[in-house]
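_Full entry_
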Amino acid sequence: MTAPRHSPHRRLVAGIVLIAVGIGTWLLYAVAARSENTSFNPGDAPPAYVRLVQGHTYWIAVPNGVRRLREVGVDPSHLSCTAAEPGQSPGALPVTPVVGSSAEDTKFVNRIGSFVAARSYRAHVACNAVGGVYVENAADAGFDWSGLWLLMTSAALVVGLPLFVSGLRRPRRVLVGAGEDDQVE
C-alpha cells in the first residue's frame, strides 16, 4: 500500500510560501551585494588596506581576472605585485599566478594569483598596470552575506516552483467500477 499523497491545495500553499521566501531572500541578496566590496561587485575601489596573517595563503583578484590583465597588456603568467604597510614604501610580493606560461585560460573568474603572507600586518596590495587589487580572503574580510542569500533564494525557488505547479494540477478522477481492461470513452 502506498502512502497517501498530500492534497494539491497543500502543495499550492507550500509552493506560494516558498516562492515568497525566495523573492524575499533575493531582495536581501540584492541589498547585501551592493554593500559588499568584492571583486564580484566592483562598484568601489578595493579596500586601501587589508589584514594579513603570517602563513596564510591569500587570493588576489581584479574584476574580470585574467581577461582584464590581458586587456591592459599584462602577461598573467608574470605578475609583479607589491605590498606596503601604512606609511611605508611598497616591497615586492611573491605571487603565484593562476595561469602558467603555457596556459591560456583559467576557471577562475576574477582571481589572478595567490601569495602566502610572510608575517602578520596590514597592507595595501597592488599589481602592475591594474593598481590596487582585492584580497578576497583577507583576515578582515566580512562574511559573504550575498552568497548566503543567493543560495537560499535558489533553494527556495527550486523547491517552491515545482510545488506551486503541482498544486495547480487538477487531480485525476477515478471512475468507480472501471477495471484495468475496461475502456472509458
